[in-house]
Each structure stands twice: as structure tokens, then as C-alpha cells.
């Protein structure tokens, strides 16, 4: 019996190709969008989930901001972990990481860079529930100068050979030898704190690289600290106790604070994060879109199939008259629905497979449809099946309810309720699409606004050169050679200017120094903010096109470095000083030293456009971290950028033959800070377009439904003198009214959503009225086009056809 | 002369074959005539009526209506012509279910550039003339078939056409109701001078007309 139903269903779908296509296509778009988005969402939510991760928390620091504690720093102190463990029995274990910057590993003098590594306590394996594929987990990080590698780094360094017991060196201090004691598998470990190389924490106490660091004190605050609390711990209570806890010798106006490790990736965005985290709000928004598109496609399906059912009224009438039972009819239409939904799901899965590479490129992930990913989608499968069955039941229900006597007389009168229901579906669809449209337009407006906002520094054609020498120490000879490098670079025809700096606008946050105590010239000491500072050489400002509002760039001294500093205008404002000139020559104190202000520069956005300008101090320093090169616009236009870059690299390697080298264009790096937002905006855009497409299909369905239903009316009106234009108006005005109603509902929704979204930005574009109007007009035009396609056909039809008396 | 059909042919092509719906129809109708068209089912009566009403085209021949050559008119002019001069009455009335009697009557006027006050007066006049003032706010479904056809005729008459085309106007009515409609047609024809062409199956109804045209297989007999 079912086989017969399927056969009829197939025949029917084939006979109505356009209808079947639109229906399957609309459903497939919805399902494919849903699956793609949910794959991404699930991936983003899978960070730091491991056995026992619910008991692992990160310790970070709050600082006082205007009398209130705010999250200040993702790092804690080197002694935070030990002190907390000693004080609180609930804490079973802790692990500290200290990042090693610009890590270059040497294997038989072959350098490997781009590896992320840290010093780590041996408790890492317990706290993070991470085992070793090679080596002994109980001893691997116990001895100084032991390293544990990820499988990929081990493969890179030692190929297929056994890495255990192998030795390697680390650039910066090539006098000591490290021994590989373990290999860990990082694949499928999503974590906000990535480590491809772990060095035993004990190494810290003897290794020359850290000999200038004060050991074991409350001065060292660049330690990511994670604690494992006993299961069944009242975390809230423990957190309260930790916040109130003042360890011995701790003098700062800060406090310790815990957060669940599971929520860091999506919900933490503090200074000095271990990496770029995700954005929980964007993930929430995307999930909402996923459900909306799915919902829209179901609404669509109900709409289309129930409108199509009208054309089948006669078939149903006949089937009923010859004795078809209601249940049989229902079953027949259900099998049609099932077949259609099944095909849509197949098509959607095919589309997901095809689109996944492109989608991955867009979101910058490597999502796959493997077992774990699919399992993660299982909970949604229930929703999808439920929705699909409801959507499938509806037309079956409508169809089988037709009164055969009426239907056979040609009275295709369905209930008013059915029409109201379909109308509500369409209005809902348009509320969703217009809201999405307005949000898309606003998001683009905001991103363009930020991109075009003046930075306060000129990053055009500025390249940062960076490298590590591998064959010798950073001693006085190095500094001499470094000066040679600067001279040589300056001689190049492609180079307009050369400078040096510790960091630059758009650079990684971790390269910025900071301090919590700052004494103003009037003697007042502020302990309630983080004060950022970095070192630079005097010509940095000129090279970056940063203008002085008072004083100059440490020029009063001929020394290579001094205790002169330049501050920005925001700093002056913070100190409550009206005239920046009044600050020149004054003394400020931090790091236990006196510093003389030699100049005040105009404000610039060091941390990108998403955060507001903060007070910044730039120290006069004999800096060697980044060589900044301003390329000569004319010369590179003529010779080409590649040639100039080649020459820079050659010059570098002439001076430092054994070294790593890489370069970064400052403007690109600065704009890259928008990458996440841009990806999000793009994803938003694409799924908005799909939602519009689905809604248009729905509208198309409802129009054809209405045109059939009003066929007789159209005929009567035409015979009584209505023109085609008048009929078009008659048919279209309702749809336009609905879009208008949808617009009125969508405006506050979109306004609210965008207002919320913009809260995350320091600089906000205005929520302009034209964005709403444009969104509404686009939706309206799409609606009119969709509707007119059908209604025009109905309007030009010869009334004789519809009015024939049989 | 109100209208004149000369050697009208109408056909459809089906499966390579030409099927004639109307064959060599010649017909002169003067103003004030009351004509009945008769013939078996499928003989082309409705087709002929539609051609006269300009709702349908034809393939050969000439059609003059009030000195205008319908066959050479553009679609829009043709529509204007029938809008102004012709009213239609249907076997199944074709009233709009969602509109009241009053609104159904007003509907054609909406398409003919009458002012609101004018429309009101014309509708009131028509309701009065047909004795259906009491039913003006009812919907078609609340009326008997005869009453619905009364409204249908009233609607066809409301913009003062010269010609009424009625396709089996009594086909759905019982004989008493049918007789009433025929009396009405007769009255309209005699007292108001409206030209009427009706299709009917009943000899009795056909006799109300002044002339009977018989069709068979699309041809006048
Ligand atoms: N558009 C058309 N295409 C094909 N056949 C048609 C068309 N219109 C009418 N016919 C056929 O022409 C014949 C005459 O139809 P009609 O004028 O409605 O007859 P009557 O009104 O006399 O019963 C019928 O056989 C009908 O099926
Ligand atoms: Mg007929």
C-alpha cells in the first residue's frame, strides 16, 4: 500500500516540476543553512570541554576602576596558584603557563618558528585531563629542561623517528639543551590556550632567558593560571572567598577571581588573553538565524503545499466520492510530504558537503561532517524531524478535509482560517527577513564606519621587520650590528624612513607592557587602572605620522635610551591637566622609577577601532623588537613592492646571516582586527539573502494560491470593466499591506537588536533612518516582483475561461 | 444598427486539426431587438455570445459595433467599448461572494470613473427599480437563486448599457423564478429600449424574444 502511495507521490512530484522544485529547494536551503550554521556554532561551543572540565577554572585579576572591581587581566601572578592552593582546600591542583614569545626551536641548527609554547607545571596533564601518546605523563614535566611536543611539532622536527630522548635548543639562549620527554596529541582538542610545546616550569628558575625576572614574588603577573576544584564544590562561594582573599605580601589594589574554563572562549575578552577568543553574542545571533531560516523554510513548505492543494481539490473530491477514506487520503498526502522532505534533506546534505569548503574558508575554520560533528548535531535532528512532520502534516490535513460535494461543483472555497493562517505565515516571514535585512545593512555600515575612521597614525606602506638571531647572544656586539642594519636599510632607495618599536597599532596585545601603579606629577598615585606602555626610538613618531600637540620625541637627549617618555592626549586628560604643555618636563613614576615627559602626541587607536583610545606611555628605549620601515611610495610604484621586500630581506640576512625573518604590513594587520566582524557580517549577509529567497518562495506560493482562489472574482471584475492595472492593484495591494505591516513590526526588533550589537563597540555609527527605509524598500521590491509574476498572469487571463458555466 | 457580424469564423487547432467553433456566422442586430439563441449543448451559443461581447476574439470575418470595426480595434479600445455599452448576465450569476448586494452593484461603477455620490445614487436607483432595497446589505449566499439573478441583472444594467448579453440566465432557476426574469427582460426591452441577446434552452423563454437564432455545430440553421 505504502509502495503504491510512493509511486503516486513520485508521479505527482514529477508532473508538477516547478512546484516540486521550489518546494524541495526552499526546504533544502533552510536545512542546509541550519546544518552549516549549527556545525559552526557547535564547533565554537566545543572549546575546552574535556573530562572534568566543569571543575576547571581560570584565575584572573580584577582591578579597581572608579571604586568598582572590573576584570582587568587574563593573567595572574606567578605565586597566585600556590597561594590559592595553600589557602583553599577546595582547590585540588593548579597549573601555570608562561608564554614564550616569538619562540624559535632549533633542531641541529635548523630553525623552526611559528610554534606556540609555554612553560607549564607538571600538573597540566591532570588539570587539563591530557595524556601523552609517547612518554610518561607522571614525569614528563618534572625535570628542568624537559619539553613535551604536540604530535604535529614532533612530526615537523623529527619526522617519523621517535622524538623521545631527542635534544633541541631554543633561540635566545642556545647554550642549553632541552630533552624531549613526551608527545601529546592536540588534534580535536579545542582550547582557548593553545600550546604546541610545553617546557617544564622548573626550567624557569635557572634558565638565563629569565635571569632578569624577579623570582617567586608578587611582581610577576604574566602567568595563565588554572585551578581544578574538587567536584561538588560550591564554586560561587569559593569565588567569593577568593575575591576577598588577600595573600601575604600582596599589596596591589587588585583581587583574584575565577571563571569556568568552558566559558572563556566565547565569553571572555580581557586584556592579555592567550589568543583571539570567539564572540558569544555572534554565536547566539547566528543560532537565532539558523532557527529562523529553518522555520521560514517550514512555513514556506506549509504555505506552498497547502496552496497547491487547491489545484488538487477536484482529485480529492473524486477520490472521496469513489470511497477514499480520510485516513487513506491523509496517508497519501503524507507520503508525498515525506518523499518531498526526504529529497530536501538529501539535497541539503549534498549542498552542505559541497559548500563546506567555501564555508570553512569564510569562517576560517576547518569544520567537517565527521562522526563527532554529526553526533553534536543529533539533538537538533529531533527538532528537525518534529518540524518536518508538522510541516508535512499540515497540507495533508487541509487536503483531506475538503468537502467533496462542494469541490466537485467547482467551488474551491477553503476556510477563512486557512487563509488567515497562511497570511500570518507570510507576515512572520517578512518580519524576519526585513529585520535581517536591516541588521545586515547596519552591520555593514558599522564596519565601514570603523574602517574609515582615522587611526591617528599613518600606517600606509609601513612594514614591520622581525627576526631572531640564532647563532649568538643579544650582547653589545649585537646592538652594534643592529645599528648597521638600520643604516643599511636606510640606504635602500625603496626606504623612506626606518624606526624601531616594541609594538605598534594593531600588533598583538601581548607585546604591550603595563603597570598598575602610576604616580602623577602632582604626587597622586593611581592604582585603579592598567597603564599601558611600550618602548620606541625617537623617529618612530615621525615615521608613523603621529603629530605632537606639545614637546617632542625624546629629542633633548642624544642617548640611545633614557627615562624620557611621550604620552598621548588621553593620558593628559586622565591626569586632569588642561594644557599639555604644562606636562612637558614633569616627572611621572612607575616600575619604581622616575620618568620625564618630553612630549604629548595626538590620540591614536593602538588596540584597533573596536575599543576606545586609552592612556598610553611610550618610553625612550633602544628597541630592537620591530624594525619599522616606511617604504618610498614613488620607488615602489616604479619597481614593485616585491622587489623592495626582497631587498629588505637580503639586507637583513647580510647583517644577521643566521636568523629568522618575517615582515608584516601594518595597515593589513590593523585591518585584520576586523576580520572576525567582517566574517560575521558576511555570514549574516549570506544567510539573510537565503532567508529572503525562502520568504520569496513563500510569497510566490501564496500569490498563486490567491490567484487561483480569486480567479472567478478577477473574471467578474474584468467583465465589469476592470483594467489589467486595476486587477494587478487589487491582487498586489494586500501583499504590499502585509509587507508594510511586517515592516512596522520589524523596525523595533531590528532597532533593538542593532542597539544591543553596537554596545560592543567603542565607536558607533548612527542607526540612521535610511537604513530602515532601504531595508523596507528592498523587501517591498522583492515582494512586488514576486507577487507580480503571478498576479500579472492572472490579470491578463481571458475572463471567458474562468467564467465558463459548466 | 447596433451590431453586425459578417462571415465570422472561429476555430481552434487541436492535434493538427482545425476544429470550427463558429462557421460563417452572419448576424445583424438593431437597437431594441430581443433575440434568443438556441441550439443543442456544444453548438457554439456561448462562443457566439462571447464574440459579440468582445470577451473572445474570432479568426475570420468582420464585426461592426456602433460603426466601430471591432475586428481591427486594439484590445484596449475593445475593452472600452464593451465597458461602455454591454452588460453581461450569467447562468450562475457570478456575484462576488465577499461583497454585499449593494457593493456588488457598485462594483462596475468603480471601473467607470463615477464619483462617489453619483455611484450611490445609481445604486440606490437600481435597488429601487428591482425592489431589493431591503436586501442591499445581504451577501449573495443569503439570497435565493432568483434573487441572485435579479442582482446579476441589476449589476449588468447599472451603467446603462445598450446591450445585455445573457447566457442561459434561467438555467439554474425553477420555472417560476425563470418566468419572473423573462418578464423583467421583456419589460426592460419594451419600456427602456435595452437590446437583449439571450441564450436559452427553453422554447417558452425563447418566445419572449422577437427573433430566434438556431445554432448547430457552430453554424446558423
Ligand atoms: N477555447 C476552446 N478550445 C477548444 N474548444 C472549445 C473552446 N471553447 C469552446 N470550445 C468547444 O466549442 C464547442 C462550443 O462550445 P460552447 O460555445 O460553450 O457551446 P454551448 O454554449 O452551445 O454549449 C464545445 O464543443 C466546446 O467544447
Ligand atoms: Mg454554453
TrEMBL record, chain A:
The keyword Coiled coil does not apply. The chain crosses the membrane at residues 21-41, 285-304, 338-359, 379-400, 421-443, 686-708, 735-754, 766-787. Residues 288-401, 686-799 form the ABC3 transporter permease C-terminal domain. The keyword Transmembrane applies. Coiled coil: none annotated. Residues 20-242, 534-635 form the MacB-like periplasmic core domain. This is Putative ABC transport system permease protein. The lineage of its organism: Bacteria, Pseudomonadati, Bacteroidota, Flavobacteriia, Flavobacteriales.
From TrEMBL, chain B:
Residues 3-221 form the ABC transporter domain. Gene3D superfamilies: P-loop containing nucleotide triphosphate hydrolases. GO terms for cellular component: membrane protein complex. The keyword Kinase does not apply. It comes from the Bacteria. The keyword Translocase applies. Keywords: ATP-binding, Lipoprotein, Nucleotide-binding, Translocase, Transport. GO terms for molecular function: ATP binding; ATP hydrolysis activity; transmembrane transporter activity. Pfam families: ABC_tran. Belongs to the ABC transporter superfamily. Macrolide exporter (TC 3.A.1.122) family. This is ABC-type lipoprotein export system, ATPase component. It comes from Flagellimonas pacifica.
Amino acid at each position: 500500500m505504502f509502495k503504491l502511495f510512493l509511486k503516486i507521490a513520485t508521479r505527482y512530484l514529477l508532473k508538477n516540476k516547478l512546484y516540486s522544485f521550489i518546494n524541495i529547494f526552499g526546504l533544502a536551503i533552510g536545512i542546509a543553512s541550519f546544518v552549516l550554521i549549527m556545525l559552526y556554532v557547535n564547533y565554537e561551543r566545543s572549546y575546552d570541554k574535556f573530562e572534568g572540565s566543569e571543575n576547571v577554572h581560570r584565575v584572573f585579576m580584577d582591578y579597581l576602576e572608579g571604586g568598582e572591581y572590573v576584570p582587568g587581566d587574563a593573567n595572574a601572578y606567578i605565586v597566585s596558584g600556590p597561594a590559592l592552593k595553600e589557602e583553599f582546600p577546595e582547590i585540588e591542583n593548579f597549573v601555570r603557563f608562561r608564554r614564550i614569545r616569538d619562540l624559535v626551536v632549533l633542531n641541529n641548527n635548523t630553525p623552526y618558528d611559528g610554534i606556540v609554547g609555554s612553560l607549564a607545571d607538571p600538573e597540566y596533564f591532570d588539570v587539563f585531563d591530557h595524556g601523552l601518546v609517547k612518554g610518561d605523563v607522571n614525569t614528563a614535566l618534572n625535570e628542568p629542561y624537559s619539553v613535551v611536543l604536540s604530535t604535529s611539532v614532533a612530526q615537523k622536527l623529527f619526522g617519523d623517528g621517535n622524538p623521545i630522548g631527542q635534544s633541541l635548543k631554543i633561540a635566545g639562549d642556545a647554550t642549553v639543551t632541552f630533552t624531549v620527554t613526551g608527545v601529546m596529541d592536540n588534534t580535536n582538542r579545542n582550547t582557548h590556550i593553545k600550546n604546541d610545546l610545553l617546557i617544564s616550569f622548573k626550567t624557569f628558575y635557572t634558565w638565563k632567558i629569565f635571569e632578569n625576572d624577579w623570582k617567586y614574588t608578587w611582581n610577576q603577573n604574566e602567568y595563565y593560571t588554572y585551578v581544578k576544584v574538587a567536584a561538588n564544590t560550591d564554586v560561587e562561594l569559593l569565588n567569593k572567598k577568593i575575591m576577598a582573599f588577600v595573600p601575604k605580601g600582596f599589596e596591589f589594589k587588585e583581587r583574584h577571581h575565577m571563571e569556568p574554563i568552558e566559558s572563556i572562549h566565547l565569553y571572555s575578552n580581557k586584556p592579555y588573553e592567550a589568543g583571539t577568543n570567539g564572540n558569544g553574542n555572534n554565536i547566539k545571533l547566528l543560532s537565532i538565524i539558523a532557527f529562523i531560516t529553518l522555520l521560514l523554510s517550514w512555513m514556506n513548505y506549509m504555505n506552498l503545499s497547502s496552496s497547491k492543494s487547491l489545484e488538487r481539490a477536484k482529485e480529492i473530491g473524486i477520490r472521496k466520492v469513489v470511497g477514499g477514506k480520510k485516513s487513506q487520503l491523509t496517508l497519501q498526502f503524507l507520503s508525498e510530504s515525506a518523499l518531498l522532505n526526504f529529497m530536501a534533506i538529501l539535497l541539503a546534505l549534498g549542498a552542505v558537503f559541497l559548500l563546506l569548503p567555501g564555508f570553512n574558508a569564510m569562517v576560517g575554520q576547518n569544520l567537517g561532517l565527521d562522526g563527532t560533528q554529526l553526533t553534536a548535531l543529533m539533538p537538533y535532528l529531533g527538532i528537525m524531524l518534529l518540524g518536518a512532520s508538522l510541516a508535512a502534516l499540515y497540507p495533508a490535513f487541509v487536503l483531506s478535509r475538503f468537502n467533496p460535494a462542494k469541490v466537485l461543483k467547482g467551488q474551491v472555497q477553503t476556510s477563512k482560517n486557512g487563509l488567515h493562517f497562511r497570511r500570518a505565515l507570510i507576515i512572520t516571514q517578512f518580519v524576519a527577513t526585513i529585520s535581517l535585512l536591516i541588521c545586515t545593512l547596519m552591520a555593514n555600515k558599522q564596519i565601514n564606519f570603523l574602517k574609515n575612521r582615522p587611526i591617528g597614525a599613518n600606517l600606509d606602506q609601513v612594514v614591520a621587520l622581525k627576526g631572531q638571531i640564532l647563532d649568538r647572544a643579544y650582547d653589545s656586539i649585537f646592538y652594534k650590528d643592529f645599528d648597521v642594519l638600520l643604516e643599511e636599510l636606510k640606504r635602500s632607495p625603496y626606504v623612506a624612513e626606518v624606526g624601531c618599536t616594541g609594538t605598534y597599532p594593531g600588533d598583538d596585545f601581548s607585546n604591550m607592557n603595563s603597570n598598575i601603579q602610576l604616580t602623577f606629577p602632582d604626587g597622586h598615585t593611581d592604582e585603579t587602572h592598567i597603564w599601558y606602555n611600550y618602548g620606541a626610538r625617537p623617529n618612530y613618531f615621525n615615521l608613523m605620522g603621529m603629530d605632537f600637540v606639545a614637546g617632542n620625541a625624546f629629542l633633548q637627549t642624544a642617548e640611545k635610551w633614557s627615562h624620557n617618555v611621550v604620552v598621548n592626549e588621553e593620558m593628559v586628560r586622565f591626569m586632569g591637566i588642561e594644557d599639555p604643555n604644562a606636562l612637558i618636563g614633569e616627572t611621572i613614576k612607575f616600575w619604581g622609577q622616575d620618568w620625564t615627559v618630553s612630549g604629548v602626541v595626538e590620540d591614536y587607536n593602538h588596540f584597533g577601532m573596536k575599543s576606545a583610545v586609552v592612556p598610553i606611555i611610550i618610553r625612550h628605549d633602544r628597541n630592537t623588537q620591530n624594525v619599522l620601515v616606511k617604504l618610498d611610495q614613488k620607488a615602489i610604484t616604479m619597481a614593485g613592492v616585491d622587489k623592495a621586500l626582497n631587498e629588505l630581506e637580503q639586507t637583513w640576512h647580510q647583517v644577521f646571516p643566521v636568523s629568522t625573518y618575517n615582515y608584516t604590513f601594518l595597515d593589513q594587520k590593523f585591518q585584520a582586527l576586523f576580520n572576525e566582524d567582517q566574517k560575521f557580517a558576511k555570514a549574516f549577509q549570506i544567510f539573510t539573502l537565503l532567508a529572503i529567497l525562502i520568504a520569496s518562495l513563500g510569497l510566490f506560493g501564496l500569490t498563486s494560491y490567491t490567484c487561483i482562489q480569486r480567479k472567478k472574482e478577477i473574471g467578474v471584475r474584468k467583465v465589469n470593466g476592470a483594467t489589467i492595472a486595476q486587477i494587478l492593484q487589487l491582487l498586489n495591494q494586500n501583499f504590499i499591506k502585509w509587507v508594510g505591516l511586517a515592516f512596522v513590526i520589524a523596525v523595533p526588533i531590528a532597532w533593538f537588536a542593532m542597539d544591543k550589537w553596537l554596545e560592543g563597540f567603542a565607536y558607533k555609527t548612527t542607526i540612521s533612518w535610511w537604513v530602515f527605509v532601504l531595508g523596507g524598500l528592498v523587501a517591498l521590491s522583492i515582494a512586488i516582483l514576486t507577487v507580480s509574476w503571478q498576479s500579472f498572469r492572472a490579470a491578463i487571463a481571458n475572463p471567458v475561461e474562468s467564467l465558463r458555466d459548466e | 444598427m447596433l451590431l453586425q457580424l459578417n462571415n465570422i469564423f472561429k476555430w481552434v487547432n487541436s492535434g493538427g486539426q482545425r476544429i470550427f467553433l463558429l462557421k460563417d456566422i452572419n448576424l445583424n442586430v438593431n437597437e431594441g431587438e430581443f433575440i434568443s439563441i438556441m441550439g443543442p449543448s456544444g453548438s457554439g451559443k456561448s462562443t457566439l455570445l462571447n464574440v459579440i461581447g468582445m470577451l473572445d476574439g474570432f479568426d475570420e470575418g468582420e464585426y461592426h459595433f456602433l460603426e466601430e470595426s471591432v475586428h481591427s480595434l486594439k484590445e484596449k479600445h475593445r475593452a472600452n467599448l464593451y465597458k461602455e455599452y454591454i452588460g453581461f448576465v450569467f447562468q450562475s450569476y457570478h456575484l462576488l461572494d465577499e461583497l454585499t448586494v449593494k457593493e456588488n452593484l457598485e462594483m462596475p461603477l468603480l471601473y467607470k470613473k463615477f464619483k462617489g455620490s453619483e455611484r450611490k445614487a445609481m445604486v440606490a436607483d437600481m435597488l429601487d427599480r428591482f425592489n431589493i432595497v431591503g436586501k442591499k446589505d445581504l451577501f449573495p449566499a443569503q439570497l435565493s437563486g432568483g434573487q441572485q439573478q435579479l442582482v446579476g441583472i441589476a449589476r449588468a444594467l447599472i451603467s446603462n448599457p445598450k446591450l445585455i448579453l445573457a447566457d442561459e440566465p434561467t438555467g439554474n432557476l425553477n420555472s417560476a423564478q425563470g418566468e419572473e426574469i423573462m418578464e423583467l427582460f421583456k419589460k426592460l426591452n419594451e419600456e427602456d429600449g435595452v437590446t437583449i441577446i439571450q441564450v436559452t434552452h427553453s422554447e417558452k423563454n425563447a418566445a419572449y424574444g422577437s427573433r430566434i437564432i438556431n445554432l448547430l455545430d457552430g453554424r446558423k440553421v
